[in-house]
Amino acid sequence: MKTPADKNVKFTFVSILRNDSRLSWRAVLSFPQGATAETSLSFDVQNLDGNRVESGILEIFGLKLPVEKGQAVLNYSQFILGKHETPISLIRPNLPKVPGELTFQ
Amino acid sequence: MNNETDRDWADKLAQGDPSAWDKVYQKVVVAELKSPKIRQMLLKYSLSEHDLVGMLFEEMVGRQKISLYRGEGSLAMWLRKYIRGFVFSSDPRKHGELSIEGIASLNEDSNQTSFDIPIDDNRVFRNEVWAITHRCFRELWAEDPERAYILLLKTRFFLTSEEVKEFLDVSTSANVDQIFSRSVKFMRAAWPEKGA
């Protein structure tokens, strides 16, 4: 597995539409150019207002990733192992677990 | 490749050969896009050149239409007639052809939880198209996330099939083409249902 040496790729995951905007979130997974199996990938996790999520748990690709200061980290190989997994959700302190999905943004 | 006959090229296309399909992109799709009318219609119907390659792949390999090529006239011109047919019958409100790449860029600075209030007919239509596309994409994602990733990588980030193969650790680039073709087909089929 390898990412192109000359193209930037980002996948954006967003919360499924909710009436309460406080529950909305977005997480952008960035792939560095030329990444290989052991390369660390990071999610940039934000609330709807664009501010980073200070703490929480991002459940994705079958993993529970801690979110600290708006960042959650995993290896490229973990993404590949979980590429068929659909359940995604964000858990923040004092808020219910909010499911999400991939979008084409 | 210089001494390759149209018959050789057609055989390779039937087998899903990546270099033969790259040649389609250059000699058929790019050539056809030199027509201002075709370019205008692509823009109007939110289609990209990569959509056209995917549609042609589905038609030629998925439906085996390549077997209808008898060698009368050049293969490139024969394929260009299909491309023209796709474009002329691509009104998304009627047929469900769409490009996530073309639509997403219109909404880069917002997200799907809030829309700007549209102020003209064009934006109303664009926002409607975007919302419908999002619903179709959601279903594709639920069906198989890998398909959704491949659709994004090919139409949004313009990765070649070989690059997608490496990116997602898919066994062969021919498999990537097949999955991509199925994704485009899925989106086309979902579109009229979601847009109705």
Strand portion of chain A: over 45%
Tell me how many strands of chain B there are.
0
Q: How many beta-strand elements of chain A? A: 8
Low-confidence stretches of chain B: 93-98, 105-118
Q: Which percent range fits the helix content of chain B?
A: 55-70%
Radius of gyration of chain A: 13 Å
**How many helical stretches of chain B?**
11
Biggest sheet layout of chain A? 8 strands, antiparallel
Helix content of chain A: under 10%
Number of DSSP helical runs of chain A? 1
Low-confidence stretches of chain A: none
Q: Biggest interface, and residues per chain? A: A-B, 27 and 32 residues
Distance between the amino and carboxyl termini of chain A: 24 Å
> What is the correct CATH architecture of chain A?
Sandwich
Average pLDDT confidence of chain A is 90
> How many separate domains of chain A?
1
